[in-house]
Structure formats: structure tokens, C-alpha cells
């Protein structure tokens, strides 16, 4: 899957919710702090982690590639 961002970055918790991988920000928060989310192959425990174009998020068997939306 691909997820396009308009700004320079988006926070990890926001990506999970906006992409539909999590139903709520609360679900995203708990799954992140429980070590269920990887960013670029590494477990990420900070929901405020800045995600930029080129990053790959892995969550519950899904892979999400972050891309910059061209103006």
C-alpha cells in the first residue's frame, strides 16, 4: 500500500489512523507502545515519530510505503 503526505512529515500515530490501518488514535497508541509497529524494519515505540517520504511502515501484516504528494 502507498500513503501520500503533503507536508514534510507526519507522525506515526496519525499515519496509522489516516491510512485506515487503525480505527482510532487510541488503538494506534497502544499498538505502537506494545511494539507492534515497525518503521524501516525497526520496532518503533514512539507514536510521535516523524515519518517522511521513503519510510516503510509494517503493521499487522501490512506494509505501507510513504510517498510525497507532488503539488
Structural commentary:
This protein has 71 residues and is of the alpha+beta class. The chain has one domain (2-68): Structural Genomics Hypothetical 15.5 Kd Protein In mrcA-pckA Intergenic Region, Chain A (Roll). Helix content is 23%, strand content 34%. The chain is built from 2 helices and 7 strands. It has helices spanning 12-18, 25-33, and strands at residues 2-5, 10-11, 37-39, 42-43, 50-51, 56-59, 62-68. The strands form 2 sheets. A 5-stranded mixed sheet has the order 1-7-6-3-4, with no helix packed on it. A two-stranded antiparallel sheet has the order 2-5. A hairpin with a 2-residue loop joins strand 3 and strand 4 (42-43). Helix 1 packs across helix 2. The mean pLDDT is 94.
Percent range for helical residues? 10-25%
Structural class: alpha+beta
Oligomer: single chain
- By CATH, the topology is Structural Genomics Hypothetical 15.5 Kd Protein In mrcA-pckA Intergenic Region, Chain A
Low-confidence stretches: none
Annotation field: number of helices: 2
Tell me the total number of β-strands.
7
Radius of gyration: 11 Å
Strand line-up across the major sheet = 1-7-6-3-4
What's the CATH H-level homologous superfamily? Answer: RNA-binding S4 domain
What is the CATH class name?
A: Alpha Beta
What's the rounded overall pLDDT mean? 94
Shape: globular
Beta fraction: 25-35%
Count of discrete domains: 1
Largest sheet data: 5 strands, mixed
Amino acid at each position: 500500500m502507498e500513503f501520500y503526505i503533503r507536508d514534510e512529515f507526519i507522525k506515526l500515530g496519525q499515519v496509522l489512523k489516516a491510512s485506515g490501518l487503525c480505527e482510532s488514535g487510541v488503538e494506534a497508541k497502544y499498538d505502537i507502545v506494545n511494539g507492534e509497529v515497525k518503521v524501516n524494519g525497526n520496532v518503533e515505540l514512539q507514536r510521535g515519530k516523524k515519518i517522511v517520504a521513503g519510510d516503510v511502515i509494517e503493521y499487522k501484516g501490512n506494509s505501507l510505503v510513504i510517498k510525497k504528494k507532488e503539488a
